[in-house]
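subagent[fold] <- orchestrator: predict structure for attached chain, return C-alpha coordinates only, no commentary.
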Amino acid sequence: MLLRSLNSLLIGTLVWALFLLPLAGAQEFFPSAGPMLMAGPQGAPQINGFLQCTSDTSNLTTYTFNGVNIGPYAASRGIIVVIHGEDAATNFNIATVTVGGVTATQAIDHDGGVVINGLFLVPHATQPTTSSDTVVVTFSEAITGAAICIYTIYDKCNGGASDYQLLNSDVLFDTDSGSMDISDPSFSSGYGFLATTMDTTGQTLSETCSGSCTETYEQSNAEFSWAGVIATSSPGWSGTVSGTGDADQAYFTCGT
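subagent[fold] -> orchestrator:
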Protein backbone atom coordinates (compact mmCIF):
# COMPACT_ATOMS: atom_id res chain seq x y z
CA MET A 1 0.00 0.00 0.00
CA LEU A 2 2.81 2.39 0.89
CA LEU A 3 4.66 1.50 -2.30
CA ARG A 4 1.55 2.24 -4.40
CA SER A 5 1.14 5.66 -2.72
CA LEU A 6 4.78 6.55 -3.42
CA ASN A 7 4.41 5.54 -7.06
CA SER A 8 1.32 7.76 -7.41
CA LEU A 9 3.13 10.70 -5.82
CA LEU A 10 6.15 10.33 -8.14
CA ILE A 11 3.95 10.08 -11.23
CA GLY A 12 1.99 13.17 -10.20
CA THR A 13 5.17 15.18 -9.60
CA LEU A 14 6.56 14.16 -13.00
CA VAL A 15 3.36 15.20 -14.79
CA TRP A 16 3.42 18.66 -13.17
CA ALA A 17 7.12 19.09 -14.00
CA LEU A 18 6.48 18.25 -17.66
CA PHE A 19 3.60 20.75 -17.70
CA LEU A 20 5.51 23.64 -16.11
CA LEU A 21 8.80 23.20 -18.01
CA PRO A 22 7.59 24.76 -21.32
CA LEU A 23 6.14 27.73 -19.41
CA ALA A 24 9.48 28.43 -17.76
CA GLY A 25 11.29 28.09 -21.07
CA ALA A 26 8.86 30.49 -22.74
CA GLN A 27 10.60 33.38 -20.99
CA GLU A 28 13.56 32.85 -23.31
CA PHE A 29 11.36 33.28 -26.37
CA PHE A 30 9.33 36.22 -25.06
CA PRO A 31 11.81 38.57 -23.34
CA SER A 32 10.62 41.73 -21.65
CA ALA A 33 9.94 44.55 -24.07
CA GLY A 34 12.67 47.12 -24.74
CA PRO A 35 12.27 50.85 -25.42
CA MET A 36 9.38 51.78 -27.68
CA LEU A 37 10.35 53.43 -30.97
CA MET A 38 8.17 55.73 -33.03
CA ALA A 39 7.13 54.46 -36.43
CA GLY A 40 9.00 56.11 -39.27
CA PRO A 41 7.53 57.37 -42.54
CA GLN A 42 7.79 53.99 -44.26
CA GLY A 43 7.01 51.83 -41.25
CA ALA A 44 10.65 51.81 -40.16
CA PRO A 45 11.48 52.64 -36.53
CA GLN A 46 12.39 56.30 -36.20
CA ILE A 47 15.48 56.91 -34.07
CA ASN A 48 16.38 60.55 -33.61
CA GLY A 49 19.79 60.82 -32.06
CA PHE A 50 23.04 59.01 -31.40
CA LEU A 51 23.66 55.47 -32.69
CA GLN A 52 27.30 54.45 -32.22
CA CYS A 53 31.01 55.32 -32.23
CA THR A 54 33.95 53.28 -33.49
CA SER A 55 37.66 54.08 -33.65
CA ASP A 56 40.95 52.89 -35.15
CA THR A 57 44.57 53.79 -34.38
CA SER A 58 46.34 52.24 -37.38
CA ASN A 59 48.21 55.36 -38.56
CA LEU A 60 46.42 55.50 -41.92
CA THR A 61 45.46 58.13 -44.49
CA THR A 62 42.18 56.36 -45.26
CA TYR A 63 40.17 54.74 -42.48
CA THR A 64 37.48 52.24 -43.45
CA PHE A 65 34.80 51.36 -40.90
CA ASN A 66 32.62 48.41 -41.92
CA GLY A 67 29.16 47.46 -40.70
CA VAL A 68 28.39 50.87 -39.19
CA ASN A 69 24.86 51.34 -37.85
CA ILE A 70 23.25 54.23 -39.77
CA GLY A 71 19.70 53.64 -38.56
CA PRO A 72 16.61 52.17 -40.23
CA TYR A 73 16.07 53.47 -43.74
CA ALA A 74 13.30 55.98 -44.33
CA ALA A 75 12.92 58.59 -47.06
CA SER A 76 13.29 61.40 -44.49
CA ARG A 77 16.47 60.11 -42.86
CA GLY A 78 19.52 62.37 -42.59
CA ILE A 79 22.84 60.87 -41.44
CA ILE A 80 25.29 62.92 -39.35
CA VAL A 81 28.89 61.66 -39.30
CA VAL A 82 31.07 63.20 -36.59
CA ILE A 83 34.81 62.64 -37.08
CA HIS A 84 37.45 62.90 -34.37
CA GLY A 85 41.12 62.60 -35.32
CA GLU A 86 44.56 62.91 -33.74
CA ASP A 87 48.10 63.20 -35.10
CA ALA A 88 51.47 64.66 -34.17
CA ALA A 89 51.24 67.00 -37.18
CA THR A 90 49.99 70.52 -36.60
CA ASN A 91 48.23 70.79 -39.95
CA PHE A 92 45.94 68.19 -41.47
CA ASN A 93 42.38 68.01 -42.68
CA ILE A 94 39.61 65.68 -43.77
CA ALA A 95 39.64 65.19 -47.53
CA THR A 96 36.51 63.08 -48.12
CA VAL A 97 33.85 61.14 -46.24
CA THR A 98 31.55 58.54 -47.80
CA VAL A 99 28.70 56.50 -46.37
CA GLY A 100 27.80 53.46 -48.44
CA GLY A 101 29.66 55.05 -51.36
CA VAL A 102 27.68 58.31 -51.06
CA THR A 103 29.77 61.45 -50.53
CA ALA A 104 28.86 63.34 -47.36
CA THR A 105 28.56 67.13 -47.32
CA GLN A 106 31.10 68.92 -45.16
CA ALA A 107 29.71 71.18 -42.46
CA ILE A 108 32.90 71.54 -40.42
CA ASP A 109 36.50 70.42 -40.88
CA HIS A 110 38.23 72.16 -37.99
CA ASP A 111 41.92 71.52 -37.28
CA GLY A 112 42.77 72.52 -33.72
CA GLY A 113 46.44 71.62 -33.92
CA VAL A 114 47.15 67.96 -33.17
CA VAL A 115 43.44 67.10 -33.02
CA ILE A 116 40.60 67.64 -35.45
CA ASN A 117 36.80 67.70 -35.41
CA GLY A 118 34.73 67.12 -38.52
CA LEU A 119 30.96 67.11 -38.91
CA PHE A 120 29.51 65.81 -42.16
CA LEU A 121 25.94 65.31 -43.37
CA VAL A 122 24.33 62.87 -45.80
CA PRO A 123 20.90 64.42 -46.49
CA HIS A 124 17.85 62.32 -47.30
CA ALA A 125 18.01 63.07 -51.04
CA THR A 126 21.33 61.27 -51.53
CA GLN A 127 21.44 58.73 -48.68
CA PRO A 128 21.99 54.99 -49.22
CA THR A 129 18.97 52.73 -48.63
CA THR A 130 20.75 50.50 -46.10
CA SER A 131 20.53 50.35 -42.29
CA SER A 132 24.22 49.51 -41.84
CA ASP A 133 27.02 50.32 -44.23
CA THR A 134 30.68 51.20 -44.73
CA VAL A 135 31.97 54.63 -43.73
CA VAL A 136 35.26 55.71 -45.33
CA VAL A 137 37.19 58.75 -44.07
CA THR A 138 40.22 60.02 -45.99
CA PHE A 139 42.58 62.57 -44.43
CA SER A 140 45.18 64.78 -46.10
CA GLU A 141 47.92 62.57 -44.65
CA ALA A 142 48.39 59.50 -42.47
CA ILE A 143 47.23 60.26 -38.93
CA THR A 144 47.66 58.40 -35.65
CA GLY A 145 43.99 57.59 -35.15
CA ALA A 146 40.42 58.41 -36.08
CA ALA A 147 36.98 57.87 -34.58
CA ILE A 148 33.55 58.25 -36.15
CA CYS A 149 30.25 58.74 -34.35
CA ILE A 150 26.86 58.46 -36.05
CA TYR A 151 23.55 60.25 -35.53
CA THR A 152 20.37 59.84 -37.53
CA ILE A 153 17.79 62.60 -37.74
CA TYR A 154 14.42 62.05 -39.40
CA ASP A 155 12.49 64.98 -40.91
CA LYS A 156 15.19 67.49 -39.91
CA CYS A 157 18.66 68.46 -41.18
CA ASN A 158 17.69 67.49 -44.72
CA GLY A 159 18.43 70.73 -46.49
CA GLY A 160 22.15 70.03 -46.58
CA ALA A 161 24.73 71.73 -44.41
CA SER A 162 22.57 74.83 -44.20
CA ASP A 163 23.86 76.41 -41.02
CA TYR A 164 27.03 75.74 -39.07
CA GLN A 165 29.33 77.55 -36.69
CA LEU A 166 32.76 77.02 -35.14
CA LEU A 167 32.83 77.14 -31.39
CA ASN A 168 36.54 77.90 -31.15
CA SER A 169 39.29 78.79 -33.59
CA ASP A 170 42.12 77.30 -31.56
CA VAL A 171 42.85 74.75 -28.83
CA LEU A 172 40.69 74.89 -25.74
CA PHE A 173 43.57 74.18 -23.40
CA ASP A 174 46.94 72.49 -23.54
CA THR A 175 49.32 70.24 -21.57
CA ASP A 176 48.17 71.25 -18.08
CA SER A 177 44.87 70.20 -16.61
CA GLY A 178 42.31 72.89 -17.25
CA SER A 179 38.73 73.53 -18.21
CA MET A 180 36.69 75.77 -20.43
CA ASP A 181 33.06 76.75 -20.54
CA ILE A 182 30.96 75.40 -23.39
CA SER A 183 29.52 78.26 -25.42
CA ASP A 184 25.88 78.30 -26.38
CA PRO A 185 24.90 78.16 -30.05
CA SER A 186 21.67 79.66 -31.27
CA PHE A 187 19.54 78.02 -33.94
CA SER A 188 15.91 78.50 -34.82
CA SER A 189 14.94 74.87 -35.43
CA GLY A 190 16.45 71.45 -35.89
CA TYR A 191 19.42 70.25 -33.86
CA GLY A 192 22.83 71.30 -32.63
CA PHE A 193 25.79 68.89 -32.58
CA LEU A 194 28.88 69.55 -30.44
CA ALA A 195 32.15 67.65 -30.99
CA THR A 196 35.21 67.65 -28.72
CA THR A 197 38.54 65.88 -29.28
CA MET A 198 41.52 65.83 -26.92
CA ASP A 199 45.01 64.51 -27.56
CA THR A 200 45.94 62.43 -24.55
CA THR A 201 47.53 59.15 -23.54
CA GLY A 202 46.16 57.34 -20.52
CA GLN A 203 43.87 60.26 -19.71
CA THR A 204 40.26 61.02 -20.59
CA LEU A 205 38.46 64.27 -21.09
CA SER A 206 35.40 65.08 -19.03
CA GLU A 207 32.45 66.98 -20.48
CA THR A 208 29.22 68.09 -18.85
CA CYS A 209 26.25 69.90 -20.29
CA SER A 210 22.99 71.38 -19.10
CA GLY A 211 20.02 72.87 -20.89
CA SER A 212 18.24 71.21 -23.79
CA CYS A 213 21.20 68.91 -24.37
CA THR A 214 22.36 65.34 -23.86
CA GLU A 215 25.94 64.13 -23.72
CA THR A 216 25.67 61.28 -26.18
CA TYR A 217 29.15 59.80 -25.84
CA GLU A 218 32.43 60.22 -23.97
CA GLN A 219 35.02 57.70 -25.14
CA SER A 220 38.76 57.16 -25.44
CA ASN A 221 41.42 54.84 -26.80
CA ALA A 222 45.18 54.64 -26.23
CA GLU A 223 45.83 57.82 -28.25
CA PHE A 224 43.00 60.31 -27.77
CA SER A 225 39.61 61.02 -26.21
CA TRP A 226 36.40 62.30 -27.77
CA ALA A 227 32.95 63.40 -26.67
CA GLY A 228 29.70 64.52 -28.24
CA VAL A 229 26.61 66.50 -27.28
CA ILE A 230 23.28 66.94 -29.06
CA ALA A 231 20.86 69.81 -28.40
CA THR A 232 17.23 69.82 -29.48
CA SER A 233 16.37 73.49 -29.11
CA SER A 234 17.98 76.87 -28.64
CA PRO A 235 19.48 77.82 -26.24
CA GLY A 236 21.20 74.50 -26.64
CA TRP A 237 23.78 73.86 -23.95
CA SER A 238 26.08 75.17 -21.30
CA GLY A 239 28.67 73.38 -19.23
CA THR A 240 32.39 72.65 -19.10
CA VAL A 241 34.99 70.43 -20.71
CA SER A 242 38.21 69.54 -18.90
CA GLY A 243 41.17 67.19 -19.04
CA THR A 244 44.90 67.05 -19.79
CA GLY A 245 46.09 67.55 -23.36
CA ASP A 246 45.53 69.64 -26.48
CA ALA A 247 41.83 69.89 -27.22
CA ASP A 248 39.60 71.29 -29.93
CA GLN A 249 35.87 71.82 -30.09
CA ALA A 250 33.42 72.70 -32.84
CA TYR A 251 29.70 72.53 -33.45
CA PHE A 252 27.22 72.26 -36.27
CA THR A 253 23.61 73.39 -36.18
CA CYS A 254 21.09 72.35 -38.78
CA GLY A 255 17.46 73.19 -39.43
CA THR A 256 14.76 71.60 -41.51
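orchestrator: received. Logging for downstream: The mean pLDDT is 74. The longest strand covers residues 132-143.
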